[in-house]
Design a protein that fits this description.
Blueprint (H helix, E strand, L loop, with lengths): L1 H12 L5 H9 L19 H21 L5 H8 L1 H14 L17 H5 L4 H10 L15 H21 L5 H25 L2 H10 L16 H23 L5 H25 L4 H6 L6
Amino acid sequence: MEGYVVVRAHGLKSRLLRKVDYEQIVSGEKEINTFRDYLLISDKDTLEEKLEKIYRVYISRISPLAEASPELSPFIFALLDRLEFENLKIHLRYMLGYARPVIYYPYGRHFGPAKISSIKTEASVWEALAEKGILSIECPKFTTELVAEREAFLDVLYYAYLLRQLEETKLSKSEKSELRETVKSEASIYMAYWEKVLNPQIVEKLVEHFKLDIRPAQIDMEGESTTDLLRAISETIMRQIIARVEAKHFITLPYVYAFNFYARLEAQNLEKIILGKTIGLPSDILLRSLVYLE
């Protein structure tokens, strides 16, 4: 069954957008809905509807891979579950007055957008995670009032959760070891980002709270804006981690990890384009914000 899942992932990867496709969309030469996976997007759609349809394409690519194999599903579904953690970040920013209007990603295996949007307090966010067994230990006492510290905590929590789901997935020892180190390597790059945003001691405290063997990566991240830093993270992960995994594990589950990265990257790129065009961002700046499939 693993072979079947990986073969499907290869087929889906062949349909991902390339640099020239993004350039044509940004220039207006082509619309997003001229690409077959995005036919349902209409010019009449609201911003929220367009973003929902973009991310439903991403979800529709990954969900069947998880559903095809009960043995592999804990880990593959956990890759998709990242959207729920991102929704929690969005909601925390909203509650603290940072984000209006709020647009959630259209996904909810543990708790969907409707459930998240009903949460009224920060404490209730952590309670909801505990009720689902995702937050299995006591929430730490935060050092600051910054929403960034809560977001960093959710990132650390996600990687701790992903590693737990990996241990529940039936794989060979070699594949499990490879994925374990891959997840930790990716997490270490995000921790380097949070060290730049927050005090390094805060990040160290969050990682130690989960007893994770992860240290922030020693990498250079150019740019000062959040957009620049996050683009640098994606490019670094793709070059240093994903490309290696894709080449080394062409017919095993780690390849699905690589495909998930590429598929989510496409959704993120299209989200940037939609938002950028909405606010009238110049084409050259918009194109520089994108990360292209190598």
